[in-house]
Specification:
- Keywords: DNA-binding, Transcription, Transcription regulation.
- GO terms for molecular function: DNA-binding transcription factor activity; transcription cis-regulatory region binding.
- It holds the Pfam family TetR_N.
- This is TetR family transcriptional regulator.
- By secondary structure, the chain is an all-alpha fold.
- The protein has one domain: Tetracycline Repressor, domain 2 (Orthogonal Bundle).
- It is built from 10 helices and no strands.
- Helix 1 packs antiparallel against helix 2 and helix 4 crosses helix 7.
- The longest helix is centred in the middle third of the chain and has 25 residues.
- The chain starts with 10 loop residues before the first helix and ends in a 5-residue tail after the last helix.
- The relative contact order is 0.11.
Length: 190
């Protein structure tokens, strides 16, 4: 095979490439500011091909949002599986909390999640965001056995970490106020 011979991707592989480009582009620019031609450029395909695959920018954004929510659920399931099977709700929530290291390392995931909330004024996007957020809340309850109060605290802490990640104040150069909040997030209540 010569250097000029290109390996052709299957339609499934190309769709996956477009979806990865969409997650990155939407995470960076949000729903309203991201154009399908930018996603096409990042994926190395034509803009009409993106539309042929996903039909509308809205449908592509929803697909990207589902990708992110699927990953969030996968991270929580993996974190819970690493804990003791008969862990108390508090210990199970602590295990799920370990998943936030994954989220903080993959800032695009959290950025797109936030952009999903911001785009919820669009009825179709809002319906999907509300459904998927509710699914995450229910998954946390199911995996941990925690009551609604402990679940709310866990979700609230997760949202704070998400916002802090978006502001880029979760790293080693974080301001004192951010370090204080992050340290408090990692403390367990007695």
């Amino acid at each position: 095979m010569s250097n000029s011979t290109k390996v052709r991707m299957t339609a499934t592989e190309r769709g996956e490439q477009v979806l990865r480009a969409a997650v990155s582009a939407f995470a960076e620019g949000g729903y309203a500011a991201t154009r399908t031609d930018e996603i096409a450029r990042r994926a190395g395909v034509s803009q009409p091909y993106v539309i042929r695959l996903f039909h509308t920018k809205q449908a592509l954004f929803i697909a990207a949002l589902h990708r992110v929510c699927d990953r969030i659920e996968e991270v929580f399931r993996t974190a819970r599986a690493a804990a003791e099977p008969d862990a108390s709700p508090e210990d199970a929530l602590n295990a799920l909390g370990n998943g936030f290291d994954v989220f903080l390392a993959d800032r695009e995931m959290l950025q797109l999640f936030l952009h999903g909330f911001a785009a919820s004024g669009d009825p179709a996007i809002g319906d999907e965001v509300r459904t998927r957020f509710g699914d995450v809340v229910q998954l946390v309850r199911d995996l941990s056995g925690a009551d609604i109060h402990a679940t709310r605290q866990f979700i609230s802490t997760g949202m704070l970490l998400t916002v802090m990640s978006a502001m880029q104040v979760t790293g080693p150069d974080a301001p004192t106020w951010a370090i204080d909040l992050l340290n408090d997030c990692t403390q367990t209540e007695d």
